[in-house]
Amino acid sequence: MPDTDPPRAAMQRLDPAARAYLDLLARCLTRELFLDQEWWDVGLDDWPGGSEQVRPVLREQGWRLVRRGDPQARAEGRDWPPTAETMIGTARLDNVLDCCVRAVLDGIPGDFAETGVWRGGTTILMRGVLAALGEEQRSVWVADSFEGLPVPDAEQYPADDGLDWSHVEVLKVDADAVRANFERYGLLDERVRLLEGWFCDTLPDAPIERLSVLRLDGDLYQSTMDALTALEPRVSSGGFVIVDDYGGWPSCRAAVDDYRRDRGIDVPIHAVDWTGVWWRKP
Q1: DSSP alpha helix (H) spans, 85-147
Q2: CB 132 within 8 Å of CB 22
Q3: Would you tell me how many other CB atoms lie within 10 Å of the CB of residue 83?
Q4: Does residue 86 carry a pLDDT above 60?
Q5: What is the pLDDT of residue 1?
Q6: Which CATH superfamily is domain 10-31+84-280 in?
Q7: 3-class DSSP state for residue 43?
Q8: What is the rounded CA–CA span in Å between residue 249 and residue 219?
Q9: Which percentage of the chain shows pLDDT scores above 70?
Q10: How many whole angstroms separate alpha carbon 123 and alpha carbon 178?
Q11: Has residue 111 got a pLDDT over 50?
Q12: Are 245 and 218 in contact (CB under 8 A)?
C-alpha cells in the first residue's frame, strides 16, 4: 500500500465486525462516546471566575467546580481527560489503527511498541488490533517509567532546558493501573509486555527482536532519542515509526530531526494532526 493512502484506508480492508469492534474500542478509550456524561472536577484555585471574597467561603465549605468535557479538544487530543485511557485524540488513534492494521495485513514482521503510555490507551488499542485480526504471534510492548516524566538533564540535553514536568501528578500512572485498564477491556494476557523504568535503562537490552510499529510519546529530547536509538533499528523494512510530540514539543522535534539526519533517514515525514507524525521504513 502506498504511504499516501488516506486515513483509515487500511480499516476498509477489514470485515465489518472487526472494523466495528476497533471503532468502538477507540471511541471508548478516548471517552468520546461518553462526553455527555463526563464532567471535569476543578479546584477553586483554578476557577477563572468569582472574586477573592467568594473563593475562601466556598473553599471552607468544601465546594469544588465541575465543567463539561470539550468535544473538539478531545477529538484533537488537546486536553487531559479525567477518566479516558488516552489523551491523543481521534486523528492520532486512527493513525495507530491504520499503521497496525497495515502492518498485519501487509505481513510486516514484528511486534507493536509504545514508549510513554500514560494510562495505556494506545497500547490497549494495539492489542485490540491483534485480537480483531486473530493475530496470535505478535506482542505489544508497553514501555514507561510509570512514574511520570524524568527530571531533564539540561546539561547533556540542552533542548530539554526548562521542560521539567517531573512534578505533574496527572502524568504519573503506575504499572498496576495500566494493567487494570487492559483488564477492563479483556485484553490483558501474556502478550502484553510491560517494560518498567526509564528508557535509558530498559530499552537497550529489552528482549524485543523486531517491531512492525513503533510509537514514541516521550515529549523530551532525551526520552525521544533514547527510544529511537534503542528501538528504531529493530523496526522491520516496511514498518512504521510514529512520533506523538513532533509538532507540539520542539525538544522532541529536535531529537527526531537529529536522529534521522545522523542516520541518513530521508523518507518523508507525514503529518497526522497538529503534533503527530509518522514515516514508513524503506
Answers
A1: 89-105, 121-132
A2: yes
A3: 10
A4: yes
A5: 44
A6: Vaccinia Virus protein VP39 (3.40.50.150)
A7: coil
A8: 6
A9: 90
A10: 10
A11: yes
A12: yes
Q: Predicted confidence band at 63 (pLDDT cuts at 50, 70, 90)?
A: confident
Report the first-to-last Cα separation within the chain, whole angstroms.
13
One-letter amino acid for residue 67 of the chain? R
Rounded distance between C-alpha atoms, residue 18 and residue 21, angstroms: 5
Each residue's pLDDT tens digit, 231-247: 999 999 999 999 999 99
Question: Burial code of 88-99, b = ≥16 C-beta within 10 A, e = fewer?
Answer: bbbbbbbbbbbb
Return d(Cα 103, Cα 202) in angstroms, integer: 25
Q: Which three cell numbers stand for residue 65?
A: 467546580
Packed helices 89-105 and 121-132: angle between N→C axes, nearest 10 degrees? 40
Coil vs helix vs strand at 148: coil
Decide if pLDDT at 50 tops 70: no
| Domain assignments of the chain as residue spans, ordered by start | 10-31+84-280, 38-69
In 10 A of CB 140, how many CB atoms?
Answer: 27
Q: In whole numbers, what is the pLDDT of the chain averaged over residues?
A: 92
